[in-house]
């Protein structure tokens, strides 16, 4: 058990594959903060804590692009080809002192090939587990915390992310936040942003009774695209989804039609995005080219029932202004197909379902049922 690099991290396009020297086992924390949500496009981030980054901070691998929100902030490292947010350094306060932390996005992590050949029976879930949840306060409405993982197993739950303040006692309390939260009535549009606010998405509806279906996928592609094992999407007809850009005079905003096809002309129009085709001519993923946030998935030819094009913005971007809550029960129809989440078998096959997705699959389904019974 002395493999020097037991883990590796990989992005969606696999251009950025990094070996990680570390001791095992490792723990990951689940962060529900606005920065993490808008960095990954997911409702929470799953960050595996590392002693240090597996590369030099001053000269990271050339396939990475980096983002710092301010000169004193930590640094995000994402793949310049596909946009997957893979590593980060960050700062946090504990016992009155500023500490630097390092992490890798758990969804990118797998056992390295050399470790697997030496330890053929070990699964990732045997050596990596969730340790704590933090900053649920940012979600306003509890976010996904009623079904994110299993708090009875996880050691600490920090409502604020401030270690000096008391932890949140139970998962039921988070559920209670959701029950109590009231969304504004009559909303006709819902906006989403990436972390750097360079990409803004808007979905609209004429009728406030109309809700957009939203589901949770745990397939390998979604995981590698976001760096998170649990990925929510909202399905919107393309004619009700827009990009909001600055007007040419820089004063106001302009609504841009969501492209039917990401060709050279549309790519140029949204030049601040990384557009990656995982299946050429068929499947496109968009990410913010400045901060690395995953923004959308689009499969050409996928339509809603009436034949209109469908686009799939990442649900974690919506309501990112820390005032309105993030589950948008007035606007989004959270659905659970038979298995609870989509592609649960992928996580089982990869030996990683025990980290979180097996629990999510059960608890998400229960939560959706409860939502329906309340509606
Ligand atoms: Zn990549
Ligand atoms: Zn966070
Ligand atoms: Zn951005
Ligand atoms: Zn998926």
UniProtKB/TrEMBL annotation:
It comes from the Eukaryota. Pfam families: GFA. Keywords: Lyase, Metal-binding, Zinc. One of its GO terms (molecular function) is carbon-sulfur lyase activity. InterPro entries: CENP-V/GFA, Mss4-like_sf. Residues 7-133 form the CENP-V/GFA domain. PROSITE patterns: CENP_V_GFA. Belongs to the Gfa family. This is CENP-V/GFA domain-containing protein. It comes from Arthrobotrys musiformis.
